[in-house]
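A protein record in our archive is deliberately plain, so that people and models can read it alike. The tokens are whole numbers drawn from a learned vocabulary of local backbone shapes. For reference, a complete record is included directly beneath this paragraph.
>
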Amino acid sequence: MNHEKYIKRCLELAELGKGTVSPNPMVGSVIVLDNKIIGEGFHHKAGEPHAEVNAINSVQNQELLKQATIYVSLEPCSHFGKTPPCADLIIEKQIPKVVIAAIDSNAVVCGNGISKLKKAGIDVITGVLEKEANQLNKTFNTFHQKKRPFIILKWAETANGFIDSVRVNSDEASLKISNEASSRWVHKLRSEVDTILVGKNTALLDNPTLTTRKWAGKNPIRVVIDKDLSLPHNLKLFIDGSPTLVMNGIKSSKENDVEYIKISGDFITGIIEELYHRKIQSVLIEGGANTLQQFIDLNLWDEAFVIKSKLEITSGVKSPKMTVKYATIVNVGSDQIFIYD
């Protein structure tokens, strides 16, 4: 049987849950009998049934499960969370064979699901397209393996390396660098992360909302750095009714939708540790130049997207400087996105 063919389908299905399943991993599953898919499913949303459950429930004649093979992009869970263990359901349905792409990096599962299946006499095959499966869930894996969120850097710069014009107050409009297609792509990226972080100057000069208004999807939790709590309280981040975390060096308190969190010690690493303890698996760093450069200098990032336009200006705020070469370039209309990983 062509195991890779069916695991590829699992990965396609799994990706449909991008942006909605966190803090769970993206998982897809198909059920095959006589080289024909008789059922399939994916994990739609955190707290809802897992991929294996949806795949099993999609099979009209449940008796066929006793002769079928279930393929899954990630090891079936073995513990009770918000839903019952998928390994138990597979055993209950007497499915004789399970093919798994990757082992779950969450210590609560990590090999336990496979062990439970084998003890029940089920034939288990692992490691089919494992690299691709782990790449799909890089955010989830980073959180559990490195004990911190997956960190993404993003900025737009001119052809000659400026991130903005020089501004001293919010009355001056920010420099429009990227095109509309790139802007929509950024909003899509926002919809796929748990949090979005900006520094004090970006919050003050841009007065952003940091939402996904140009893309269908959830808004990330906003995080703003304000060490001395000097930002004015009438900024959109503080009054639009959406959650905002203010990382500062003075106090910890909550005022309506704004939570102030006091960070001790090194500020950047302290913020990342705080996000990890809050079970936040991914953070998008959107600026400004100084904040981005701090993460680069600390080598505290996993992926970076630099949107480069054809626009040139004579002077302004210099863009951050990466210390490694980009991996890929993607053309988006007149813009180019340089991808670092």
Remarks:
- The two ends are 35 Å apart (CA to CA).
